[in-house]
Amino acid sequence: MRTKPEMMGQLRPAFSELNLSEGFEFDTEIVTNEIKEDCKSLLLSNEQLTTLMKDMDGAIRNGLRKDTNPSSIVKCYVTYVQDLPNGTERGKFLALDLGGTNFRVLLIELGENNYFHMDSEIFKVPTHIQTGKGSELFDHIAKCLAEFIKKHNLDSKKALPLGFTFSFPLRQVGLTKGYLNSWTKGFNCSGVVDEDVVRLLKEAIKRRKDVEIDVCGILNDTTGTIMSCAWKNPNTKIAVIIGTGCNACYVEKVENAELFDGDKSKPHVIVNTEWGAFGDDGKLDAVRTKYDREIDEDSLNPGQQRFEKMISGMYMGEIVRLAIVDLANQNKLFEGRLSEKMKTKGAFGTSFVSDIEGDKANYKETLKVLNEMGINDPSLVDCANVRYICECVSRRSAHLVSAGLATLLNKMDEKSVTIGVDGSVYRFHPYFHKLMVEKTKQLTKSDIKFDLMLSEDGSGRGAALVAAVAVRDELPSMTNGFSAI
To answer: How would you write the pLDDT of the chain (485 residues) with one tens digit per residue?
Structure first.
């Protein structure tokens, strides 16, 4: 026997028969009970999140200690960044931001009275280079750097200070020395894992013999986000990225970062958690779904970055697609009809999730997305069901991030913290910010206050600020008003 919502789906017209000028509000009642039941595995209770937080807190503490770090899943790499911008930085600085299929080169000028000017250009990393030789990747980057310098009439003979954002798991042993732990986000270049990526970049620049660049610091995009936000708000002590990947860094006491062998006269250092790998030891198995397992098994790095794969923009749309295909195959969506495009891996982009949840009325965006995916004349119930699937997947993503942030906030136990946030999922999903604020507040100690600050180009501006601070600290005359973390 069909449930009432299914009968409604049978009776309600297809979109081709609707007058879309007649507005209506979303009717959550028409989401079928079958869909709600099947999506329960995507909904996480506070009890489940609290258990997850205890495990993550333990993983972070293991990552910080010398004796347990080698076996720790969450590596907690020290960044060697100990100082924040203080407003005395002056000059022109380059930034290189590599973290996905596109990378950017930026020129940033800092001057008196908070003067700030930025020029930037986006370059593509061709697919064959993403999975080719590492030397080809860095030669391509050096070529683009040289083109940018020439285009902007910079002195190619003068060593230009550069901050290098490298948004992949990195084990740093100094401000300008870091070893790639593993590739993520679709990259798999040979000859780079366990190598110093700053050295590889310098060698590629040297091979060209046409530009001089001084790499002043290497950092993750999360570190850049802290720097960028701290330039405006010195209370920034955590940064999180929710984009193609997902990661967080935070300000830790030097005595807790046992692997740090830098300047211990300064009280703090930024720690890059690399929490995307949380759960690679099985700690997430209780909350992973069959869709998560399929995505992991079919990825370039099976068994790795399992936390990230449940959250980030690289995977969110694919989780929704797998759920849609699964439910349609069970005749719970689209009367069992599926297009070839909907069956195609990667065809349902994460931007579609934001579009669908951004619908104001009439399911216009949902209809547009489904039509683009080859699903024609879906019923209203189908559209409501697809929206509900998207909501479950994105809510779970936001709640997992919230659990991670609450873990850091509770561990730091600072009474007031600004959290810098960046990434396409956070920026473009219509409800992600609200979901994060609500859930983080529920999971954090009641006496801790926090706010979320959207980063202004953390991975680019932040990299240049790392270079600017490094140059500033080399000039004693400019260190008055020095701002330590």
So the answer is: 233 333 333 333 344 433 333 333 455 678 999 999 999 999 999 999 999 999 999 999 999 999 999 999 999 999 999 988 877 888 899 999 998 888 999 999 988 887 889 999 999 999 999 999 999 999 999 999 999 999 998 876 778 899 999 988 888 889 999 999 999 888 999 999 999 999 999 999 999 988 889 999 999 889 999 998 988 888 999 999 999 899 999 999 999 999 999 889 999 999 999 999 999 999 999 999 999 999 999 998 899 999 999 999 999 999 999 999 999 999 999 999 999 999 999 999 999 999 999 988 789 999 999 999 999 989 999 999 999 999 999 999 999 999 999 999 999 999 999 999 999 999 999 999 999 999 999 999 999 999 999 997 777 888 899 998 888 766 543 333 334 56
Q: Which of 83, 97, 139, 221 is catalytic?
A: 221
Closest CA to 273 of 408, 182, 113: 408
Cα separation, 192 vs 175, in Å, equals: 19
Pair of tokens at residue 79: 């960044």
Other CB atoms within 10 Å distance of the CB of residue 322: 21
Catalytic annotation, pick one of 38, 83, 92, 185: 185
CA angle 245, 119, 228 (to 5 degrees): 50
Helix pair angle (197-208, 134-151), 10° resolution: 60
356 near 390, Cβ under 8 Å?
Answer: yes
Torsion angle of the four alpha carbons 286, 290, 291, 293, in this order, in degrees rounded to the nearest 10: 70
Coil, helix or strand at residue 11: helix
> Got the DSSP string for 224-263?
HHHHHHHTT-TTEEEEEEESSSEEEEEEEEGGG-TT--S-
27 catalytic residue (yes or no): no
Residues in the chain: 485
Q: Distance between CA atoms of 319 and 317, rounded to whole angstroms? A: 5
Q: In whole angstroms, how far apart are CA 191 and each of 82, 186, 264, 279, 388? A: 30, 16, 34, 27, 44
Backbone angles phi, psi at 161, to 5 degrees: -70, 135
DSSP code, position 13: P
CB 381 within 8 A of CB 346: no
Instruction: Give the three-state DSSP class for 132.
Output: coil
Compute and round to an integer the Cα radius of gyration of the chain.
24
> What is the strand order of the sheet 160-166 is part of?
115-124, 102-111, 91-98, 160-166, 213-219
Is 221 part of the annotated catalytic residue set?
A: yes
Q: Alpha-carbon torsion 435, 438, 444, 450, what sign?
A: positive
Tokens encoding 213: 């660049």
